[in-house]
Structure formats: structure tokens, C-alpha cells
Amino acid sequence: ADVRRQAQEKGIQLAGNAIDDVLTVALFPQPGLKFLENRHNPAAFEPVPQAEAAQPAAAPAKAAASGIYTVEVEGKAFVVKVSDGGDISQLTAAEPAASSAPVQAVAPAGAGTPVTAPLAGNIWKVIATEGQTVAEGDVLLILEAMKMETEIRAAQAGTVRG
After folding, report:
1. Domain range summary for the chain, segments of one domain joined by +
2. pLDDT per residue over 113-134, tens digit each?
3. CB count in 10 Å sphere of residue 3
């Protein structure tokens, strides 16, 4: 009844099935009434989006000049010789570059107990450092997920390894 009264006061013509218009105004009082006022005025609404004309594809990049390049794939360096046509004419494995930092031995698979988090998130703060001895229940790091901080604790006593 209130919507019908408002419609009469503002000169709004309700739809044949007025329940739809009443429901629109009940759910969205201000925009619903404004919609009913302008229902038959397309200029009151945003224009219908138009499909943009297809842009021409960018010109393909020029191929690199012929020469000898060192390419690294999965940590292994390869020396490749490329001709003008882009064909690889020679491929040899390069000697690994000497590293200034000492190489640490990788722990064998299965050594130690991996620490898993109960949920996905971002590491907010690392508490335990590599080589540190921890007891069962010690906080190793703080994980942030959904604006909440979660402490990740050691499941057993041991030494932290990277």
C-alpha cells in the first residue's frame, strides 16, 4: 500500500503485476524507487556496453641476432650457437660457474620431519632460525591467513633445517 501511494504521488506507473515493483522497492528502497521512476527512460541508465573493435596484433619481435649464448635450464647452463634463421646448430653443456658461497649438502629425502601448516597463508614472521634446536611445541613461525595470525609449532623436538 505504501509503494502504491508513493507511486501515485510521483506519477509512477506500476507494472501489471505490482508485486514485483513492491518487492523491488522493499529490497532496495532508494534505488528501487528511482528505478521505477526511470523505468521507461533509457537515458537515466548507463549505456549498454559495446564490443570494442579488435586491435591488430603487435608485430612479432625480431629474432635475436645470431651468436653464441649461455642458456640456463633448471639450474644447468648450456652454451648454444644460434644461426640467423634461429636454428640451433650446436649445443654443449657448460661447466657450472664457480660459486663464491660454499655449497651446502642437501639433506637426503626422508631425513627429518617436514612441518606442515593446517591452512594456506603467508609467512608473517619466522621465529626459529636454521640450526636452532627446538622442543616439541615451540613456535617455529607465524602464518597470516584471512587477517588472522596462526602459530606453527614444532610437532617434535629437533633441529631446524632449511
Report:
1. 2-44, 64-97, 122-159
2. 888 888 888 888 999 988 899 9
3. 21
pLDDT, tens digit, 9 for 90 and up, residues 3-60: 778 877 888 777 777 788 888 888 888 888 888 888 878 787 788 888 776 666 665 5
Torsion of CA 125, 129, 133, 139, to 10 degrees: 0
Q: Going by CATH, does the domain composed of 122-159 fall within 2.40.50.100?
A: yes
User: Of 140, 121, 138, which is closest to residue 129 (Cα–Cα)?
Assistant: 140
pTM over 0.90: no
Cα–Cα distances (Å) from 59 to 53, 66, 84, in that order, read: 18, 20, 19
Distance CA 77, CA 32 (A): 66
Q: How far are the Cα atoms of 58, 59, 63, 64 from residue 55, in angstroms, in the given order? A: 9, 12, 23, 26
